[in-house]
Amino acid sequence: MDVRAALLRAGGVARYAELRAILTRTEIRSAVEGGYLIRVGQGRYALSELDADRRAAASLSGALGGLSAAMFWGWKVKFPPDQPQVLVPLGRKVAPPRRSGIEVRWRDLPSDALDRGALGRIDTVLDCAKTLPFDAALAVVDSALRDGMSKSSLLIACQRTSQKGRARALTVIELADERADNPFESVLRAIVLDVPGATFEPQEWVGNVGRADLVDRERRIVVEADSFEFHSDADAMLRDMERYNGFLAEGYRVLRFGWKHAMFRPDYVRAAVAAAVATNGLQIS
Description:
- The chain is of the alpha+beta class.
- It is built from 14 helices and ten strands.
- Helix 7 packs antiparallel against helix 8 and helix 7 packs across helix 10.
- The longest helix is centred in the last third of the chain and has 16 residues.
- The radius of gyration is 20 Å and the shape is globular.
């Protein structure tokens, strides 16, 4: 797996230890030296496009918003944006040639966002929660919570914003959970939340086996974000097999989904989980 693909799978931003799980030290060093990866903080790396996003915001005297702002703060995303996402103050004229290759939105911006070149942390969460599809928004808010953001402060801030998009944002924030390890798990959870009759919790301990990615204890179903393609050696694969067998021995049915399932085939994931719930003898509709 090349460096770009590895970082995309990791959410666009990754700690060194996360990269080392799937790349060699030489590959990481070469990517940094070649400009494919940039350091965005102590032990954190991002795709080089983040520098382009910052330059785009500066070129318009604006501020990064949406996914670009989330990555500015070092938060993981479902997919990095195809173009820099830049906010400019209301009423400012930006000629089409200047905004070519940039996703521009107009809004009332606080002065500190313009000085910084990006929305503040709370405003970034709210912007993503209001404007992104549910699964992409959940990935950002989960990451923000893992980074120390307070859910209560986000809910309070959301209640104080304009009504446009507020209900949607409140739903995302209320369902967000810092226990999700990465966007893969966040997106998978977003899918199973849509299955009637299911009540999955993230990172729940099962017997003496370990934590499962998603667990419905009442129906004794485990849903795993399968990292088979990230196995670095045969021992890792064996451990994963033992983990799977352990869940079965505890009386749980186990559904395993790959990254591509979650990101590109959500209907398949939803149908498989719904079938497991249905065969549990529970009514779904």
